[in-house]
Amino acid sequence: MAHFEEFDPYWVLTIPRIQLARATGFVALPTDTPGWQLLMVILSRSSGLPLASLLFLPVGGIATFPASYAFFRRVLGGGHATLLVSGFVTIEFSRGATTYATFAHAWAFPLLFVFMRAYVGVLQERAARTSWILFAFTSFIGLHLVYYTGELLAMLFVVFVTLYVLAGRAAFGSNLTRVRVAANLAVALAVTFFVFNQVVYDIFLPQLSHTSVEDSFSWVFGRISSLFSSPSTRADPYRLFSSPNTLISWMAAIQFAVVLLPILAFGIMSLNSMRERHAEYRRHHNRLEVVLVWTMVTVTAAFFLLYFVLGQVNVSLILLLLPVSTLWTIIHMSEGKTGAWKLIPVLLCVVLILTSAGKIASAVSANDNAPFSFTTYNSTLFGAVVGAKGYSLRSMGIAYVVVDLRSMNSPTYGGSLQIVQPLGHYQNGIESNPQLHAIYNDGSIKVYSTS
Fold first, then answer.
1. Are residues 345 and 257 part of one domain?
2. Model-level pTM greater than 0.85?
3. Average per-residue pLDDT in the chain?
């Protein structure tokens, strides 16, 4: 991943665990991603490739297309537009080194599409419902073991699909058996999620008390302003930023507009139809396809809000889950029309694919070696280490500071997706920091005491 300047710091924490599991045959516990680590061990042993080579194997890029197509085909039916929108989602998903290869995301999102298709099968396929239930439950357990974000998205999908189905059960006529089955399965999956997903209790809930919504608003306004002017000097101390690519930002803005505006228009039309012709609205808008369309919209909005309250802005789902809703909306709005209207879904997909290709070409041509720009950062601890006034290491409960002298000029991974500037930029501040007292130095590692 270093070749693409997109090496996710979480690899540093996980690779030793995978190597240990490969050598001993046992996964080191506790861990939030045992399934991902086992998949990497199995892949390494079955292929005979070293772990370093597997970091570049395009598992996510290959698996996303058939997985997304299976789900999109249920919503849209077959045709060129379905193939094209699946291709766009695959390209957009594969733009990042952590998603196209073998990082946890690369396994989880294709499996998420598989789960969603299986859950729809529970609602739709009466003859093989038992098989679909087993398939859905197995893939949900897989998401739980592989990556907690995938499990969270699956849980949101289940909740909103079930709520929409129960609210509009006329979609299934007088036979409510499948609705009850889906609701029971949703309860079982919810119990599994809240009982076994420790990330909710160990990370999410504790972090709520330290959230910074201001960081989220700052990110949004910064992105918007970067479209029209050069980025201004940032006031956040020690925060490591990269210069935004204006061309990529504009292309992303075009994609967001293409995806979101038809959904917004359809939502307004649906509200007017519901208010003026309630009976007709129920007859035409309680179909399973409509349930899935609005579920995608609601899941994306809920996921965005969850990250937003944590001080982060995650808009990735807009280009992964919402294009199928947009395409269905365009097809629905063009029903009964002929001529150029029939070409609009295909043309929309072509625009999305071309803008994604443009984003890739712009990133490659720029050859920007600047580090990442992250959305959240707390500079207090870093400032205390480098000797900034007003910070106390002892009051933070820090007794020792260990410095890797070999990586002084590399960005520092602070955990929770936070990257700070290299410590080497502040070496004089560290050495003159009255709170730090050197107690060990072997030329590679230096240890300071704060007492």
1. yes
2. no
3. 78
